[in-house]
Design goal:
The chain is an all-alpha fold and 269 residues long. Helices cover 72% and strands 2% of the residues. It is globular.
Length: 269
């Protein structure tokens, strides 16, 4: 972090909102957010690896606490998918929903960790000056996830309805199959297809990013003196408790929208 003499509200916020970037190639304007990629991969391995290990060791007798926890999570997700998706959910949709919920929840939950302590750890132990530990505050992460779901949605539209059936749906719904309405139908469906990944990604990004900004503002307040430290700590603890609900709810909403989009791809108008 910047030295005390250089520390200003602007530099403090800029420091915590700066990514560790690496150019794809020399002279290229394409850059990789290394911190986002590595953190996302590590969280995915830890969370999904934990579920895999618990399932591998599951027994039919009295379950352990970890087995009971995983069974509860799997049953909860499966019931939610069953209420929305009426096809064979166990082939892809339910496992995908569980993966998305757990992975997004873990990435969101990194926002609850004390941001200054995590910055101190990455700088003084790992020697990395800029490292954002919350992948879902990076719009590239949320948009990549939403685009993956979008491509799956198109894939299932073509698989279930056939290319001809999907094209018919694009040009002949919702206003009818009169040739004079084809352009209007296509424009309407184009707007719908474009808005889905945008709303899907920006909803998650906006909520988690806003939470991070509030934590930063509370951290700045805590640095203003004794009263600021006391009130900043109290409000920070209160916001952290409330933010637990937000990170869980946003993971659930992202997962449910995924299931809804895949379910819509299996239905014909």
């Amino acid at each position: 972090m910047a030295s005390e003499a250089e520390l200003t509200p602007t530099s403090y916020i800029k420091h915590h909102l700066t990514y560790l970037e690496a150019q794809v190639s020399e002279g290229s304007f394409w850059v990789l957010h290394v911190d986002t990629l590595i953190t996302s991969i590590i969280l995915g391995i830890i969370s999904l690896g934990f579920i895999w290990l618990v399932v591998r060791r599951a027994t039919s007798g009295v379950p352990t606490k970890s087995q009971a926890f995983v069974e509860l999570a799997v049953e909860f997700i499966d019931n939610e998918v069953k209420n929305t998706f009426h096809g064979n959910r166990h082939v892809l949709v339910a496992p995908m929903a569980l993966t998305i919920f757990v992975w997004v929840l873990m990435m969101n939950a990194m926002d609850i960790l004390p941001i200054d302590i995590m910055a101190w750890i990455t700088e003084n132990i790992f020697g990395v000056h800029n490292w954002k530990i919350v992948p879902t505050t990076d719009v590239n992460t949320t948009f990549a996830l939403a685009l993956s779901i979008w491509f799956l949605m198109i894939f299932f539209n073509v698989k279930v309805k056939g290319m001809g059936g999907w094209m018919y749906e694009l040009f002949c719904t919702p206003f009818g199959k009169n040739p004079l309405l084809w352009i209007l139908n296509l424009l309407f469906n184009f707007i719908e297809y474009v808005s889905k990944p945008l709303s899907h990604s920006l909803r998650l990004f906006g909520n988690i990013y806003a939470g991070e900004i509030i934590f930063l503002l509370l951290g700045m307040w805590a640095a203003t003196g004794i009263s600021g430290t006391i009130f900043g700590a109290i409000l920070g603890a209160g916001w952290a408790i409330f933010h637990i609900l937000i990170v869980t709810l946003q993971a659930f909403i992202f997962m449910m929208l995924t299931v809804v989009y895949i379910s819509m791809a299996h239905e014909s108008h």
